[in-house]
C-alpha cells in the first residue's frame, strides 16, 4: 500500500510517496509558488501528479493547518470535512485554501482513493480549557470562536514520539517541551502524550519570535497603532505577519543564517534579534516546565532547532536549575546522520535529556493516513446526542397532590427532547438519613409509580444506598422522604440510580444494527478524558428520539457537559471480546435535561 502525502504551504507544495514500510519512493518540494506570478500551486500539483503516473497509490494524506476544535484526529475526507476546512479558511488564509485545492484535485483525479485530512490543530484540540481559554469576555469569545487552537501539531507530536523512542519510555509517562523552530515557530508542553499547552493560539501569530511574525505582543500596542498611529487592519496584518520577528528586529532578513553572520560581525540589531528570539524561547521552556510540574526532556526541531547550535545553546543557558546539562561539544557537532531521526546533545547524566529531532511531517502524515484507512468505519452511521440528567423525580398523581396540595397539577417549565416529556416548575426536597437535597425537579407527565433518580454522589450525601436500575423497575429500591410545600411523603421504595440508556426510534436501531434491550458500549473518544461506557441499555420505541441519557457523575467522569464538543461512537462487544465499532460522529452538547 503506497501512501501519497501532500503538504501545501503558503508558497510551497511538499510531497512524498511512502510504501507500506514507510520507505520513501518519491519525494519533492516546489517552492516560491504564487497565485499571481511565476508558478502557481495548481502548476505544482499538475507536475506532481504527472510524476506520479508511474506509481500505484492506495491512499492520500493531506496536511490541513486549521480544523478548529472539531477534529481531534486524522479524519477521512468527506463533504462535511471539506466544508469544515472551508469554514476555517478565513482563520488560515495562507494555508487552508491550498489544502482544499489539493484535496479537490486529488479527489477528481482519483475518485476511488481514500483521502485523509491530518490537522495541525488536532494534537492540541484536547488542551485543558485553562490553557485554551483567553481571559476575555466569555460571550464575545463564544460568539467569535476566540480560543487557543495551537498549530504545528503534526510536528510536535512526531518530535515527541521520536524523543520517547530514544528515551525508551512510553510517551504517556513523559513530560516534554518540544520546540519547533522554523520560519514559523512554536513551543508545546507535551504532558503524558498530550498537548497541555502550546505557544501559538487562535492564529499562528502568538508565542515565539518567528521569521517574519512577531509572536507575543501586548494587544494594547495594536489598539494604540490603530488609534494614534493611523494603522489600518491591512497595515497591522503586514506589520505583524510579514515585517516583524527576526526580519523586523534585525532589519536584515528572516533567515537566521544571515542574522547569525551579521551578528558575528557586530551588527547590533542582528544581535538583538538573536537575543530576543532565545530569551522568548527560554521563557516558554521555563513556563511549560512549571505548568507540567517538571520535565523529562527538551526537544528541538525545525530548520533553526535542527541546525543552529548557537541558538540552542543560548536557549538552554540558565536552565541548569531544571536539571538541563548541555554537552557543548555534542551540541556543536550535532548534525543528524542521514538515516537517523535524532541526535542527543545533553550530558549523559543530565536529568533532563535534550534531543534534536529531524522534523518529518510527511512521514507522520503517511503514518496517520495508513492508520485511518486501515480502520475506517462506516461514515453514514449517525452520532448519538447525549443528554446529562441531573437528579429528578417522576411522581404519581397521589404523591404529587400530597406534596403540592389537593387538585394540584404539574406546570410545564420546558419540554424535553423525548416527545411528551417535560420539566415541571415544581421542585421537591429529598430528605435522607444523613442530609437533604433541596430543589429537585419534578418531570412530567405524572406516572403510575413514584421514581426518584439520583447520581451516586447524591446517594452518599443523602446517606442511602440506591440500586442501579432500569427506569420503571423500582421494586426493592431504596426508601426516601419527599418534602413539598403542602406536605411530606415517605416513599418505602423508589430511589434509584438510573442505568445509562439510549432512546432509539426503530429506524435508529436498524441503522445501528441493535434491538430493544440490547446492551452496548458507547465510546466518548474525543473528550478531555475519553471513556467507554459499558452496559448501556438500548430502549427502542416508536415515540423515542435518538438520545443517550447519563447522570451527572457519568458526565463528569468523561468531562462531558463542560466541554463544548467531543466525539462519540457506539460499540458492541463482539463474541470474542473485541470492541466492534458501529458508528462514529460528533458528540452534540446538550443542556442538562432537568
Ligand atoms: P519552514 O518553517 O518554512 O518549514 P524551516 O523549518 O526550513 O522553515 O526553517 C527555516 C529556518 O531555519 C530559517 O530561519 C533558516 O535560517 C534556519 N536554518 C536552516 N539552516 C540553518 C543553519 N545551518 N543555521 C542556522 N539557521 C538555519
Number of separate helices: 19
Number of strands: 28
Total domain modules: 3
Radius of gyration: 29 Å
Q: Specify the structural class.
A: alpha/beta
Strand content bin = 25-35%
Mean pLDDT: 89
Helix content: 25-40%
Globally, the shape reads elongated
Q: CATH superfamily membership of the largest domain, which one?
A: ATPase, nucleotide binding domain
Task: Just name the CATH architecture of the largest domain.
Answer: 2-Layer Sandwich
Reading off the top of the CATH hierarchy, the class of the largest domain is best stated as Alpha Beta
- Ligand names: adenosine-5'-diphosphate
- Low-pLDDT segments, ≥5 res: 562-594
Main sheet overview: 8 strands, mixed
Question: How far apart lie the N and C ends?
Answer: 51 Å
The CATH topology of the largest domain is what?
Answer: Nucleotidyltransferase, domain 5
Characterise the protein shown here.
The protein has 594 residues and is an alpha/beta fold. It folds into three domains: 3-369, ATPase, nucleotide binding domain (Nucleotidyltransferase, domain 5, 2-Layer Sandwich); 393-497, no CATH class; 501-591, no CATH class. Strands 13, 22, 23, 24, 25, 26, 27 and 28 form an eight-stranded mixed beta sheet that branches. The chain has a six-stranded mixed beta sheet with strand order 3-2-1-4-6-5, sandwiched between helices. A hairpin with a 3-residue loop joins strand 7 (175-181) and strand 8 (185-191). Bound molecules: adenosine-5'-diphosphate (ADP). The site of adenosine-5'-diphosphate has 12 residues, from helix 10 and helix 12.
Amino acid at each position: 500500500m503506497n501512501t501519497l502525502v501532500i503538504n501545501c504551504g503558503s508558497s510551497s507544495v511538499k510531497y512524498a510517496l511512502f510504501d507500506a514500510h514507510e520507505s520513501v519512493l518519491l519525494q519533492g518540494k516546489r517552492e516560491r509558488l504564487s497565485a499571481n506570478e511565476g508558478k502557481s500551486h495548481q502548476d505544482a500539483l499538475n507536475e506532481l501528479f504527472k510524476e506520479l503516473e508511474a506509481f500505484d497509490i492506495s491512499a492520500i494524506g493531506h496536511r490541513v493547518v486549521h480544523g478548529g476544535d472539531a477534529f481531534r484526529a486524522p479524519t477521512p475526507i468527506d463533504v462535511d470535512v471539506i466544508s469544515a476546512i472551508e469554514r476555517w479558511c478565513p482563520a488560515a488564509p495562507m494555508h487552508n485554501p491550498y489544502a482544499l485545492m489539493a484535496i479537490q484535485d486529488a479527489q477528481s483525479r482519483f475518485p476511488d482513493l481514500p483521502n485523509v485530512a491530518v490537522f495541525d490543530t488536532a494534537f492540541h484540540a484536547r488542551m485543558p480549557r485553562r490553557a485554551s481559554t483567553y481571559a476575555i469576555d466569555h460571550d464575545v469569545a463564544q460568539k467569535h470562536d476566540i480560543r487557543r487552537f495551537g498549530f504545528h501539531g503534526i510536528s510536535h507530536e512526531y518530535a515527541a514520539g521520536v524523543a520517547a523512542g530514544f528515551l525508551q519510555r512510553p510517551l504517556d509517562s513523559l513530560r516534554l517541551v518540544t520546540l519547533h523552530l522554523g520560519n514559523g515557530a512554536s513551543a508545546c508542553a507535551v504532558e503524558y502524550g498530550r498537548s497541555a499547552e502550546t505557544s501559538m493560539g487562535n492564529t499562528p501569530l502568538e508565542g515565539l519570535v518567528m521569521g517574519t511574525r512577531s509572536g507575543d505582543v501586548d494587544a494594547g500596542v495594536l489598539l494604540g497603532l490603530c488609534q494614534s498611529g493611523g494603522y489600518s487592519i491591512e497595515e497591522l496584518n503586514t506589520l505583524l505577519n510579514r515585517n516583524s520577528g527576526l526580519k523586523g528586529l534585525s532589519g536584515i532578513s528572516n533567515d537566521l543564517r544571515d542574522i547569525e553572520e551579521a551578528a558575528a560581525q557586530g551588527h547590533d540589531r542582528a544581535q538583538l534579534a538573536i537575543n530576543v528570539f532565545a530569551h522568548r524561547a527560554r521563557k516558554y521552556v521555563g513556563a511549560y516546565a512549571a505548568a507540567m510540574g517538571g520535565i523529562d526532556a527538551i526537544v528541538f526541531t525545525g530548520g533553526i532547532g535542527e541546525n543552529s547550535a548557537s541558538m540552542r545553546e543560548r536557549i538552554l543557558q540558565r536552565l541548569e536549575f531544571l536539571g538541563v546539562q548541555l554537552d557543548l561539544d555534542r551540541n556543536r557537532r550535532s548534525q543528524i546522520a542521514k538515516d537517523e531521526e535524532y541526535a542527543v546533545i545533553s550530558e549523559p547524566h543530565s536529568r533532563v535529556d535534550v534531543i534534536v529531532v529531524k522534523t518529518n511531517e510527511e512521514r507522520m502524515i503517511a503514518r496517520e493516513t495508513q492508520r485511518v484507512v486501515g480502520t475506517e468505519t462506516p461514515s453514514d452511521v449517525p452520532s448519538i446526542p447525549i443528554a446529562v440528567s441531573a437528579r429528578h423525580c417522576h411522581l404519581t398523581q397521589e404523591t404529587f397532590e400530597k406534596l403540592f396540595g389537593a387538585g394540584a397539577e404539574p406546570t410545564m417549565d420546558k419540554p424535553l427532547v423525548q416527545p411528551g416529556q417535560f420539566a415541571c416548575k415544581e421542585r421537591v426536597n429529598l430528605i435522607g438519613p444523613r442530609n437533604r437535597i433541596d430543589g429537585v425537579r419534578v418531570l412530567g407527565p405524572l406516572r403510575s409509580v413514584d421514581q426518584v433518580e439520583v447520581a451516586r454522589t447524591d446517594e452518599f450525601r443523602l446517606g442511602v444506598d440506591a440500586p442501579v436500575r432500569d427506569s420503571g423497575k423500582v421494586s426493592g429500591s431504596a426508601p426516601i422522604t419527599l418534602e413539598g410545600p403542602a406536605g411530606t411523603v415517605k416513599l418505602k421504595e423508589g430511589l434509584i440510580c438510573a442505568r445509562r440508556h439510549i432512546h432509539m426510534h426503530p429506524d435508529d436501531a436498524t441503522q445501528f444494527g441493535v434491538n430493544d434491550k440490547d446492551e452496548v458500549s458507547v465510546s466518548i473518544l474525543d473528550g478531555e478524558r475519553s471513556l467507554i461506557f459499558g452496559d448501556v441499555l438500548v430502549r427502542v420505541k416508536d415515540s423515542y428520539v435518538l438520545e443517550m441519557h447519563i447522570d451527572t457523575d457519568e458526565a463528569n467522569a468523561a468531562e462531558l457537559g463542560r466541554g463544548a464538543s467531543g466525539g462519540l461512537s457506539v460499540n458492541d462487544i463482539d463474541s470474542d471480546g473485541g470492541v466492534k465499532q458501529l458508528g462514529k460522529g460528533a458528540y452534540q452538547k446538550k443542556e442538562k435535561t432537568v
